[in-house]
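Ticket #4471: structure output looks truncated?

Reporter: J.K.
Steps to reproduce: submitted the chain below (213 residues) through the standard prediction queue, then opened the result file.
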Amino acid sequence: MTAFPLFIELENKPCLVLGGGNVALRKVKTLLKYGVDVTVWAKDFLEDFKELEAAGSVKCVERILEFSICDEVLNKFTMVICATSDAVLNHAVCEMAKRQHIWVNSATDKEDSNFIFPAVVVRGNVSVGVSSSSKTPSLTKHVRTKIDALLPEWYADFENRLKELRQMARQELQTQSMRCDFMTAVTTYGAAHQGKISDAVVQKILAVVRNNF
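Returned output as attached by the reporter:
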């Protein structure tokens, strides 16, 4: 069955990632885009992890990953990512996490996970998650690449400008219908002009909206 897409707030929430290889690194880099407080456990780490730790982005703990990981340790975390190459270990940790109703994802077995880690495209507060319910990763990657090309980098500034205009519309326009028409108009204009919406354009759109009501 197709998985339901769910967006949750993870800023400053503690997340544990098991594994110090390329798969774990990709997961960590995605989590950091959302302000997650990431701790990584592994026996060995890629150099990239050391660079992230030196920058203060993650905490790396060198330890042998074994079945002695206990429930009392896991319950400190909001989310656990099992990204080691040991499927048996990943399965055991996933079972521990699920018993405590902790969000957990396994890189080696979808059935061990209680959520899917999507491919993402992020532009400021605009976030798009892509998943094929873990059935066709190549298609997920293909769709993510298409979306990445569709959303240019200036969408982050565009989104910030629209937030400002939304606040202004609440003060300047009396009804929800007027505010809705205004925001539709400025969004359409901005999308056609690389996110740039001058104050003069805003005033013209305000006048049109008022005249229409």
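Triage note (M.O.): checked the attachment and the full token line is present. The chain has a mean pLDDT of 93.
Status: closed, working as intended.
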